[in-house]
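Example 4.3 (complexes with small molecules)
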Amino acid sequence: MKHIYIDHAATTPIHEEVQQAMTEAMKTQFGNPSSIHQFGRESRKQLDDARTTIAKSIHADFPSIIFTSGGTEANNLAIFGTAYAYQEQGKHIITTQIEHHAVLHPCEELEENGFEVSYLPVDETGRISVTDLKNALRDDTILVTVMMVNNETGIRQPIEEIGQELKDHQSIFHTDAVQALGVEAIDVEALQVDLLSASSHKIYGPKGIGFLYKREDIHLKQLVYGGEQERKWRSGTENTLSIVGFKRAIELVLGEREQRLSHYRLLSKTLLEELTQQGVDFSVNGNEPYRTPNILNISFPGTDVEMFLTNLDLSGIAVSSGSACTAGSIDPSHVLKAMYGSDDERLRNSIRFSFGMDNTEEEMKLVAERIKSIVDRLTNL
Ligand SMILES: Cc1ncc(COP(=O)(O)O)c(C=O)c1O
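Answer. The structure with pyridoxal-5'-phosphate bound is encoded below.
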């Protein structure tokens, strides 16, 4: 049986060229970049080169990149770091109901500690409204954190408009760009964001490495204390090997983004056409034109997500619901709940397909055929 992986929003394989760069670095570099001898200096050079490439890729300056262990840590540093550094100016934070848990849970933790958080709703298309944001803004708002692309639906949020809106407000603007890196051309200046989180393992880089972009004049309360690394914003010997891999993954994206995007568009179109041709009943969650082409969230009426995923797995197809799994069962998606309300059956019958560079049109045809037989089975129970 042919196994087909369509869960790239969860994680991607490591690109061959990333593997090569990391293997080479593993063989030739082991110095601690903080050491002053030659071994250290060589590692420092690799670290500096990576920081330069990564900063340039989002139109930022070299010192604005703080390497972290991934998107989760970058979000935690942005949120706790801002809240505790600016609490004298207010204790109000604005976020959305559809953020990743790496944003929602830090916000909930801050609520336990005397901060007030407003969670903006979304409409059926999966987008927040800038008017709602304007209405929620207060004199004591110190942080607005809104994700760039939603990990379950692929829907883009109006980041440029929010940046514009906050231009003359004291609030710091953070965006979780974990699902946007690689699909969006990110320019932190044009977006007017102060903080931006990113992760390597969604763009064919290694796991356990990411960064927080921090505009020079923003101050954060650090979370990790220790040495002088990352200009003390995040102490700890840098993960140079993974940083080298992350750099290569970013270089590859920069050279191939348009190609990758048109491939994802083709896959998405093929899958939808094949499902229609097979006579499968479905609807897409999250509307065009705001959907990124690599994520497609589809509801299959009359099915149940857990049974569906198990059947797909048994038939060799790796996808996910996009929402959290607690004690072996899938929680109804908080993102779809925000879009449709808690009683809608789409919360319990939706699947996230997320495409990668190696997926083919042929695979999409096979997937549609296998889905057809599973849906027939599940709906005839
Ligand atoms: C939108 C979003 N934010 C944050 C994260 C967490 O990133 P990491 O896995 O690097 O900790 C993810 C991962 O799925 C994500 O999709």
